[in-house]
Design a protein that fits this description.
The chain has two domains: about 5-200, Vaccinia Virus protein VP39 (Rossmann fold); about 210-280, Orthogonal Bundle (Helicase, Ruva Protein, domain 3), CATH 1.10.8. α3 links the parallel β2 (about 45-50) and β3 (about 65-70). It has a seven-stranded mixed β-sheet, sandwiched between helices. A two-stranded antiparallel sheet has the order 1-8. It is built from twelve helices and nine strands. With about 290 residues, it is of the alpha/beta class. It starts with a helix and ends in an 11-residue tail after the last helix.
């Protein structure tokens, strides 16, 4: 593939800062990332934000088929040409925002291997979307700014541990694949990147409405992370007051004076059980559906 700076200059284009565009410019690094993704000729690969195709070409040469979703219309046209020059014919390019894209349609009954160099401004949203659609995903090998990757796998107790950490660790295992220094990108970003593999668990403690309630509990807890759990849960979208919050926390064996970042995943699921039971027995039943 052509060096990103050269290709963009030839087309009189510039990377869009508002889309978080930093293109991987080292073909060896791109090949290494794809190899570590373990893609086989039986795999349907979803690439998020292919950009100028650094990962796309290597993935296409290993996969059965690649569906690449690119929001930037300018780049979609460039990538089509680059793939043609490389003799690649098993890539379907979709010009769309991945956050608006229906993944069921792409999967078509198959499991997806998801890859991508994710822009910082939508990284968290993409992960939440993959969690929601994880029944379609075999595994995801994704590149993030290193700081965000550290937050995803951070243990409880520190400032890096947050809502995203708790949600991902509830339903997946996370493994560091490799670090990618900033100088291997064009334009060069201010920070290094990290590639991680997210493998979703086949079974989790909750499903359906109860799992969605768990995610609401985690969101409420971290919405005011400087406050105690008793106060952050009260007045949130959970619709409970401080008395109910304290009661649920005590029923779950959690000190109401603790803060969100100190709870591990098991404590969040225990708290959810307590809140779910309390609310269903009271007047503010969180859901009308039966627990599934």
């Amino acid at each position: 593939m052509t060096y990103p700076g050269t290709l963009l200059k030839r087309q009189q284009l510039m990377a869009k800062k508002e889309l978080g565009q930093n293109f991987l410019s080292d073909p060896n690094a791109a090949e290494k990332i794809v190899n570590k993704a373990g893609i086989s000729d039986q795999d349907l690969v979803l690439e998020i934000g292919p950009g100028l195709g650094a990962l796309t070409v290597h993935a296409a040469r290993q996969a059965k088929r690649v569906v690449a979703v690119e929001k930037d219309t300018r780049l979609a046209g460039l990538l089509t040409g680059e793939l043609s020059l490389a003799g690649i014919d098993n890539v379907e390019l979709i010009n769309n925002d991945i956050l608006k894209q229906d993944l069921e349609t792409i999967a078509g009954g198959e499991k997806l291997v998801v890859i991508g160099n994710l822009p910082y401004n939508i990284s968290s949203q993409v992960l939440f979307k993959l969690v929601e659609c994880r029944h379609l995903v075999k595994r995801a090998v994704l590149m993030f700014q290193k700081e965000l990757a550290e937050r995803i796998s951070a243990p409880p107790g520190g400032r890096d541990y947050g809502r995203l950490s708790a949600v991902i660790q509830y339903c997946a295992t996370v493994r560091t694949v490799s670090d990618v220094p900033a100088h291997l990108f064009f334009p060069r970003p201010a920070v290094d990147s990290r590639v991680i593999e997210v493998t979703f668990l086949e079974e989790t403690r909750f499903s359906g409405e109860k799992e969605r309630y768990l995610f609401k509990v985690i969101k409420a807890a971290f919405s005011k992370r400087r406050k105690t759990l008793r106060n952050s849960l009260a007045g949130s979208e959970l619709g409970i007051d401080t008395t109910q919050s304290r009661t649920a926390l005590e029923n779950a064996g959690i000190d109401p004076a603790r803060r969100a970042e100190t709870l591990d995943v098991d404590e969040y699921t225990g708290l959810t059980e307590a809140l779910w039971t309390m609310c269903r027995e009271g007047e503010n039943d969180p859901h009308t559906d039966q627990d599934r």
